[in-house]
Amino acid sequence: MTAKEALTRARQILVHYNIEDAPLESEVLLRYALNITRVQLYQDIRQELTPEQEKAFWHLIERRCNHEPTAYITGHCEFYGLDFFVDPNVLIPRPGSELLVEEALAIAGKHSAQKKRPYLIAEAGTGSGAISIALARHLPQAKIYTVDISAPAIGVAVKNCRQNGVEGQIILLQGDMLAPVPEPVDLIVANLPYITDKEMGELSPEIRLFEPKLALAGGEDGLDKIRQLCRQVRNKLRPGGSLLLEIGLGQASNLTNFLQALYPSARIKVAPDYAGIDRVVGLTFPGMWGILSPTGLTSHLSKKLSKAR
Predict the structure, then answer these.
(1) Is the pLDDT assigned to residue 309 strictly greater than 50?
(2) Do 96 and 126 contact (CB within 8 A), yes or no?
(3) How confident is the model over 195-206, as pLDDT tens digits?
(4) What is the residue extent of each domain of the chain?
(5) Three-state DSSP class for 268?
(6) Which of these, 77, 185, 242, 263, has the minimum number of CB atoms within 10 Å of its CB?
(7) pLDDT 10s digits, 42-85
(8) Does 78-294 match 3-66 at the fold level?
């Protein structure tokens, strides 16, 4: 069987099993089985496969027909132009999360140039580390604390930091949300679980059967973990700092109302993705007043008055 014949047959099988993007998926799996690039594949598309190559390829196709995601089969996923190792311990990075990176880079670009000290970022729920690593590659002067509650996920992130050459910039911490972050930062980013209880039962088999539920389930309205993080922000942001959160469809109104009640002095921005869906909620504090509790505010005013005297 030639490579071309194998591709044609694989596409037909994947279509039969209702696998989306069957042409692309069959090509990716064939290139993985043959360990060649796309250019090499089509330069010699009529090459005869060895029995070993055929066996390996059809085994991959069988796994995909059982709805195992291609990224887990190959162990690779592209995000923000970078290559990442992924396995079932971490969520597969989605293209939609690239908006979170873009918004973070825009904020960092405005403020980091004004400060002589290192720009500090924290990410809660890092998973594979894709978001923090993308930020590190574009912000070489930044220092990033990246946190996950899962030890296996931290192991994947460590591997990806080494693979992308940013292990000196990123400090990996195991723990719940922002609890392990040792100092206030300029920017907090998070793509936390936001799938509602109802939606969890409606997910595709690829997600429902293979991706970690810990990284998906967000409670009744999908905002349980996000609210938990928001309550921790008060003591983890520097004056004038910002928070960026990825959210799901229809969650912007509930979250912005919650944030306005929690931090009335903060500025809130909602950014839509390329499909027009509100995808990232941003919160920026104007200064010291936004992050101090009433008790802290009184103390701060007393110190200022004392200095004035």
Answers:
(1) no
(2) no
(3) 999 999 999 999
(4) 3-66, 78-294
(5) strand
(6) 263
(7) 999 999 999 999 999 999 999 999 999 999 999 999 999 999 99
(8) no
Structure-token match 């039969």, residue found: 16
In sequence order, the 6+-apart residues with CB closer than 8 A to the CB of 294 are none
> What is 112-176 written as a DSSP string?
GGG-SSPPEEEEES-TTSHHHHHHHHH-TT-EEEEEES-HHHHHHHHHHHHHTT-TTTEEEEESS
Name the band, by pLDDT with cuts 50, 70 and 90, for residue 115.
low
Write out the two tokens for 9: 């047959």
Helices 22-34 and 51-65 pack at an angle, to 10 degrees, of 140
**Distance (Å, whole) CA 292 – CA 115:** 22
Contact status, residue 285 vs residue 235, Cβ threshold 8 Å = no
- How do beta strands 143-148 and 170-174 pair? parallel
Closest CA to 105 of 78, 148, 137, 77: 137
Sequence-ordered alpha helix ranges (H) in 164-293: 197-200, 205-210, 224-232, 252-262
CATH for the stretch 78-294: 3.40.50.150
268 CB-side CA count, 13 A: 19
Q: The domain at 3-66 falls in which architecture?
A: Orthogonal Bundle (1.10)
